[in-house]
Amino acid sequence: MDMRKNYFETLNVLVRAIEASDPYTSGHSMRVSAYAEAIAQKVGLPQGKIDLIKSAALLHDIGKIGIDKNILNKTGKLKREEFEKIKSHPEIGATIIADLSYLSNISGIIKHHHERNDGKGYPDGLCYEDIPLETSILTIADSFDAMTTDRPYRSALSLESALQEIKNNEGTQFNPDIVDDA
User: Fold this and answer.
1) How far from 81 is each of 77, 84, 126, 162, 163, CA to CA, in Å?
2) Residues 96 and 62: beta-carbon distance below 8 Å
3) Which residues are known catalytic residues?
4) How far apart are CA 28 and CA 73, in angstroms?
5) Residue 144: which of 125, 168, 120 has the closest Cα?
6) Each residue of 88-147: pLDDT tens digit?
7) Which CATH architecture has domain 2-179?
8) What is the mean pLDDT of the segment spanning 70-80?
C-alpha cells in the first residue's frame, strides 16, 4: 500500500509543476482525473485500468511545460504556428515520462489524448478503432473540464451545455461507446 501511496504522491508533485507553468490549468488535472475515474467505473473497468487512467489524467498536460507561456495564456485567437506549438504538448508529455519505468505505461494515453474518432485529432490522426479505450475516456474527461472552466479565450459553459456538446460530437470527436457513460 505504501508503494501506491508514494506513486500518487509523486504524481501530485508533478501536477503542481504543470499547474505552475499554466495558471489556467489550476485544478484541471485533478478534476480530469476525477471525471475519468467516474467514467471508467461506469464503463465497468477493473481497478488496475482505472488507476492507469487516473494517472494518465493527472499528467496528461505535463507537456505544456515545454510550451511558451505567452502562447498558453494568450487571450486572443492563436496564430496557426502558435496552435501547432500547442499541438505538440501531448508528444512532449509522452517523451517526458517515457523514461520513468513506473509511468511508461501511460505515455501512449498521454500522447494520444487529443485524438478524435474521425481521425482529425493529433498528433497521429488516429481513428476510432485505433484509439485505446483508456485514451477515449481521458479525452472526454479532459474536454468536459475544458468546456466547464473559464479559459483565456472564452467563458465556461454550463454543465448541461458541456454534456450536450459531448453528445453532439459523439462519433466524430468522441467514442460513442463511452459518451452515454459520461
Assistant:
1) 12, 5, 22, 28, 31
2) yes
3) 64
4) 15
5) 168
6) 999 999 999 988 888 889 999 999 999 999 999 999 999 999 999 999 999 999 999 999
7) Orthogonal Bundle (1.10)
8) 88
